[in-house]
Structure prediction request, 382 residues.
Amino acid sequence: MDRLEFEMCEHKGIGHPDTIADAVCEAASRELSLAYRERFGRILHHNLDKGLLIAGRSVPHFGGGAIIEPMKIIICGRATTLGGKIDVHEIAATAARRYLQQHIRCDPGNFKIVTEIKDGSASLQAVMPVRRDIILCNDTSFGVGYAPYSRLENIVLQLAGLLKSDEFRQNFPAAGDDFKIMAHRVGVNGVPVITIALAIIDKHVESASRYFSLKDAIRSRLNSNLAAPAEIRINTLDDPDATDEQGIYLTVTGLSAEMGDDGQVGRGNRASGLITPNRAMSLEAVAGKNPVSHVGKIYNVMATLISRDIYENVGNVDEVNVQLLSAIGKPIDQPQAAVVELSTPASITAELSGQVKAIVNRWLANVGRITDLVLEQKAPLY
Prediction:
């Protein structure tokens, strides 16, 4: 990837509307999975991957504005209720509220949570295993993964980690949770150009001049975190001549969803944590799908972990790309195709090929490990 003449990639931060939609639906799926396992001894069929975040209305003001209409989160999908033996609506809504309380720095009362969940079809319920060693794919789909990250991708992830760090938030309390990073470079050694949208919280800003000086300070801090030069631009829609709240990215909550933007599951980061148009990608939403039989989740997570495993443990490999293709109703550990593309400085030997196949087969033979990683919140999802 680093040898391409042009590259671009994107990351949507923890407070971006699409990321919030992903996160609350994933939280709902995880809590429902744990509840199924506790009450019935196994995870039952469900997919809560059709979530929507509908923007509210706000009036930002220097020193502190107001929310005049709350944001609305709709968690939509299918889940097994066994005739009302389990309250899937309450479990999903409670999980969403808990996620917001723990991860988003604004009053959870600014969100209204609605669940639209119904029982799934009998045929899809039937693919869920009674015994863990018999798992059938509930869809015909594919997953992709790659390793390692390119230099540009690492820069984007590094900046994202800084923007949501405790240290940054303490130094810049006006910086909201909602941010998006778009980076590109032209030329193999081109200087990265990084455009960042960062919501600013109004109660920490007393004037337009303070807003612009804050932007300069944040830009300087971000640049100081990078090992190589980059051009960082923040909130490029801002009117440089603004003298009041109009024409600048000012918010009450630190979230664009309070008024400016809606969100939807599957429109955000892939399992890599990035959106990477220069690479193979799946359009499947990983978040919210059941972690047992839905290949839209299992194969994307597995392909990502397989690629990392190969890159880290097989010598003399520069880059790894993995693609897994399923067939509905067939065993999940027997994909229609498992393709590994390697970039190496030398030829691919029989020994190297054997090492790669062994890693792929090991992951497929232990597909249940993906379920565990998801429930333990150790799997890359978004």
In short: The mean pLDDT is 95. The chain has three domains: 6-12+150-262, 17-117, 142-149+268-375. The CA atoms of residues 191 and 215 lie 21 Å apart. The two ends are 21 Å apart (CA to CA).
